[in-house]
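[INFO] parsing input record for Permease
[DEBUG] input buffer:
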Amino acid sequence: MFDKFSIALKSIGKNKNRNFLTMLGIIIGISSVICILAIGDGFTHRINTESGGHNDKNRFSLDYTPKAADENTNNGFTNNDAYILENISGVDHVKLTSSYGDSDGSVSYNGKKTTMSLNKAPKKLKLSKGKVNSLDPDDPSGVFISSDLASRLFKNKSPLNKAVIVSDNTFIVKGVYRIGDMEYKPDMYVSKSVFKELFADQIIQDEAKIYVTSSANKKKIGKIAVEKMKKFGENKQTGKYKVLKPDAMTKSFTKILNYVTYFVAFVAGISLLIAGIGVMNVMYITVSERRKEIGIRRAFGATSSDIRNQFLIESVVLCMIGGIVGILMGYLFVSLINLFLPFKAIITIYAVIISLSVSTAVGLVFGYIPSNKAAKSPLVGLLKEE
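[DEBUG] output buffer:
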């Protein structure tokens, strides 16, 4: 076997330019497949990493959803609900939180009133109007408002330094910010201390994060928790309780993304079909050029199987060299792509294995017919040609 590989490498080396051009199609096809799989895997890894908070082994979440008929309800989980949940066997502790961090309310200016959402201001905010991009913690009266809220309250007037009323408290507009088409921001920002003092209690606590012990069965505890809330939840009449399953959503999204990635990789891999035709053509030429060698080997006792295997190995080696170079080129391209992507493309071991397997398969499939032709060449005919 080693001799056959050695002969194959020597044969490929004799026609470097021709074989390099033949391998070029394989190199391009494999490097394209590597890049596409790396981008898909990198994006999937990013999604899984960002949803990692939901995949905590010792935690799951219980969700409260108001019934459609109870639009005015602002109830969720209460401290008594948390106490009931904490008494379930296997539960370590419970933390009530909100899936919707904003506080809803109304704001008025000169008797004109409108609804709005409100939250604590980020450290820095890009403003379209105003001189500062952060609220002074020593001045609790300052607020930032969105351009949409400014339009509703002030129309064409400048809102800067105007007083607005929120929950019987007076605030001064210090700046206006815009909200892009693809982003979400509340209508108003107040300082962190003001939000905590005046508005934090108004947020609906519609999510109970249940932390369980390491030996507990989360699925079993989840069922018990839902049953407990259905029986004893303080707001059981106005809403429904269910266990959140973000893991399932993430897995479903990842599955779809993988299908898309494999399909695109398959389309890119079609170029390997064209490269395979090139390999077949080169092997036909090689067989024709080496009919004398085939005749001599057959005369010295080589069987048809020996001749077939020799050319088949040569075809596979040619494609594997192209595949290895394609993988190296793929690594280079992925390094360059990572300079521009918002996430890191990742080349996994299975992408490398798939690429090597595909390049080997191309060599076997497209090299078989020329190799078989060489094997079936009659000895008498070969010797007569000489």
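[INFO] Residues 1-48+250-384 form one domain.
[INFO] shutting down worker
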